[in-house]
Amino acid sequence: MAAVTAAQPRSSKTESYVDNKRKEDIRQANIKAARAVADAVRTSLGPKGMDKMISTANGEVIITNDGATILNKMEVLQPAAKMLVDLSKSQDSAAGDGTTTVVVIAGALLKQCLLLLTNGIHPTVISDSLHKASTKAVDVLTAMAVPLEISDRESLIKSASTSLNSKVVSQYSTLLAPLAVDSVLSVVDPAKPDMVDLRDIKIVKKLGGTVDDTELVKGLVFDKKASHAAGGPTRMENAKIAVIQFQISPPKTDIEQSIVVSDYTQMDRILKEERNYILGMIKKIKATGCNVLLIQKSILRDAVTDLSLHYLAKAKIMVIKDVEREDIEFITKTLNCLPIANIEHFRAEKLGHADLVEEVSLGDGKIVKVTGIKDMGRTTTVLIRGSNQLVIDEAERSLHDALCVVRCLVSKRFLIAGGGAPEIELSRQLGAWSKVLHGMEGYCVRSFAEALEVIPYTLAENAGLNRIAIVTELRNRHAQGEINAGINVRKGQITNILEENVVQPLLVSTSAITLATECVRMILKIDDIVNVRDSTMVSTAKYLLSSRILYGGFFLNFLLCLFVFFSKLCFLVNNETIHMQHAHLAIQALL
């Protein structure tokens, strides 16, 4: 009798994974699409990175090397590629900086995952290993970090300068970095020292001058001139400021209608009533001592008329109109006042107080400055100047990144070196850790470690250096224990990057590693793409059935003809029978 031998089951962690052709094609298509997005922004990484010129459909031109801006303007259609765009937005929300880094790391991880899949490793095993590797990487980065005191202004400026050095306006980093630090420190609430709301820092852009003319204003700046069409004042000392949300103009009817007046006496009476109405409002405003009015833009009717401006000028009240609705909260918080929604609620205690409100000429335009505010809220305003709109917009984006970097340091007070030092140290330590692990996990972690080397490789490549020689020397220096050795792209050699003041917040690096790993794991888990069609035919059939009840005759026949025509058109375009089936069912039901 022949002996029957049972096959020994192999471990699920070590057996090779053979995918079917469709799932393999879907994964490869997703990975290639995502890598294409990463490659598009890779050349923008680092201080020597290239800039991108973005031309929008409406003719707008943007010059930037900010990863979040580039990806946000790109028209990405592939679903997996869109995930990298969302990844950049997530990094921008979490840390504000490192938006290019996170996408480049994700692209390198996807490249390594494609090799692992080709070698027959199951996607779930790769995903779990990446999660373990990212957790270990965060621990290694935290161990490398240097504690920071929020009172150490110089260290904060160094970190903000590092963020600005990779921007188009890097030559102005000595001005913008201290400005960003002072802005954030001025809005930090002692009751919540770890929280910074960047909405308390208002950025106002004004064309003219250069970026060197950018300034920090302790008060308010309005990018509009005071209303002096009727000869009203443009400068007011010891100002009592009211923020109003009602209109100083004749009332209108609730519904749109015309009133025909045929008698001149009635016309004179209407004009007299309008004058008395407006004059009564201005007398109530003047009685409170108010001498500066900030009027919210109205969509119902004119916020002010020529007649009301005339009476306000007579009353020596300075008027700034067309204040945007979204700015009201910032203005009232800064002035420590309350918005007034009705003339009956106009009280002296709802006013804000300032030493000076004046109209200032800047270039070809004018602005209004409010300074010396009494009991000012924890807000500040930055006035950005520039020779053209492209420079101003890029300066605003760069300043936003610098503000986010300082915010990161306020919330998580640790610094680490830049210049590719943390990534190469992570690669070295994770490579050593992978040798301790068993089975497929060791291979996956080693691939994770190799993927992180893309950052120093890219920094060297974008700086025009020999990337092989530079990264090899960088590995050697880290193997000798110099954990802060990094690529100095200006000198073109390896130096102690901390001594060169190239530092960045710990939160930027840990967030980039964590978010990139999560995105790659999600892409790995996708094995199919299901397209869901909109059931417009069924909806149209239901509508026609209801039309049969409500209408008849010509209208019904006209709808039927249209429905059959579009049904056949869908059939010809999509070559799918389901549309025609819906059409036939609808016609049978109607007949």
TrEMBL record:
Cite a single GO MF annotation: ATP-dependent protein folding chaperone
Checking InterPro entries in the record gives: Chap_CCT_delta, Chaperone_TCP-1, Chaperonin_TCP-1_CS, Cpn60/GroEL/TCP-1, GroEL-like_apical_dom_sf, GROEL-like_equatorial_sf, TCP-1-like_intermed_sf, TCP-1_chaperonin
What GO terms fall under cellular component here? cytoplasm
Q: What is its main location?
A: cytoplasm
Domain of life, per UniProt, equals Eukaryota
Q: Which residues cross the membrane?
A: 549-571
Where composition is biased (Basic and acidic residues), the residues are 12-21
Which keywords belong to this entry?
ATP-binding, Chaperone, Cytoplasm, Membrane, Nucleotide-binding, Transmembrane, Transmembrane helix
Subcellular location(s) of the protein = Cytoplasm
Tell me the SUPFAM superfamilies matching this sequence: GroEL apical domain-like, GroEL equatorial domain-like, GroEL-intermediate domain like
Q: Where is this region: Disordered?
A: 1-21
* Pfam families noted in UniProt: Cpn60_TCP1 (PF00118)
Which CDD domains does this chain map to?
TCP1_delta
Q: What does this protein do?
A: Molecular chaperone; assists the folding of proteins upon ATP hydrolysis. Known to play a role, in vitro, in the folding of actin and tubulin.
Q: Which NCBIfam families match?
A: chap_CCT_delta (TIGR02342), thermosome_alpha (NF041082), thermosome_beta (NF041083)
Query: What family does this chain come from, according to its entry?
Result: Belongs to the TCP-1 chaperonin family.
What is the recorded name of this protein? T-complex protein 1 subunit delta
